[in-house]
Fold:
Amino acid sequence: MGPKMKIPVTTVNRLSLYLRVFSQIEKAGNDTISSKELAEVSGINSAQVRKDLAYFGQFGRRGVGYPVAELKKQIRGILGLDRDWNAAIFGAGRLGQALMMYPGFGAYSFHMVAAFDSDPDKISWELEGIRIYDLADLKRQAKDLKIEIAILAVPAAVAQDVANRIVAAKIPAILNFAPAHLNVPAGTMLRNVDFASELEALTYFLQKT
Amino acid sequence: MGPKMKIPVTTVNRLSLYLRVFSQIEKAGNDTISSKELAEVSGINSAQVRKDLAYFGQFGRRGVGYPVAELKKQIRGILGLDRDWNAAIFGAGRLGQALMMYPGFGAYSFHMVAAFDSDPDKISWELEGIRIYDLADLKRQAKDLKIEIAILAVPAAVAQDVANRIVAAKIPAILNFAPAHLNVPAGTMLRNVDFASELEALTYFLQKT
Structure:
């Protein structure tokens, strides 16, 4: 299956989850996984898992399972993780700094090449080797540093304004942590991370216990 | 539809997204929404939206649309958001402090009643009215403050240890921000927030542009 095939967002999210399961399986010293096992560990129902795995052709073998390394490679290719991506963090407050120090990005294909802020006390400062640039220099730095993904960690009140600057600097994707609804043109990919919404999924299940 | 009906996790996530769309619609001064409009704003396909809305009975009217306030109330009830939930933040580092200051929680049903850390320099300190308690006092405080949800923002290396303490203190749900795989008993609800995985969904779509 080539990277041009269209997959729904929910499937993309599951592929991402499967990748994590495969890494656990490898750490545990195993090199194959059955669809039943993948269903159990990932919490996805087994019919769905089999349907997802069918995208990748018939290389699972009855009684032997799927080769983890091969599945991982295929899924990484589909998700676009077989190459590196340059990302920058917008807002060097508590959340921005936490993201600059987050060890989870480096293990994948993401390079945090810069942070941006407009506070003179923060500009030119470095954290974990990531330099904080003046937001006013965004256009030039976005081009020089080849920034492809903007991670927005500014206060909600200024989120739209900073998003507009990101769009103007031709950065094609935004991961938005600010609790604000953003308007971006159709050519910009936007994904919102909403901490409260993560909690809502828990309360649904909590009330049943 | 009563709160006892079983809904898949993916549907629960969509309900949470719809709630946000309804709030936008209300802010824009409208009190009804069509399934087509909800599909467009939420980015969910319209067949799925109609299927989801069918859970809530037949109160959408052809040509008039669904009453937003009523839908909101019903979905909040289903998600368990018609009552308050007490949550505590574990780890008062950069991420923990960012979460203590995150304005998105208060607007919903979540009360951050405490934070916990084991650093003597942080204990007894307050941020946004949230006091930081000694992790060693967790059992007593969890009971006194009636903590129902633990938000884990500690370094990956200590995440399992702190999760064990949370389980021992009988807190039934954990929202895990640490990039670590946690083992918890079946009676504990666990949800993992993985920032890298949010980025992976973007790269899939980015490579097609």
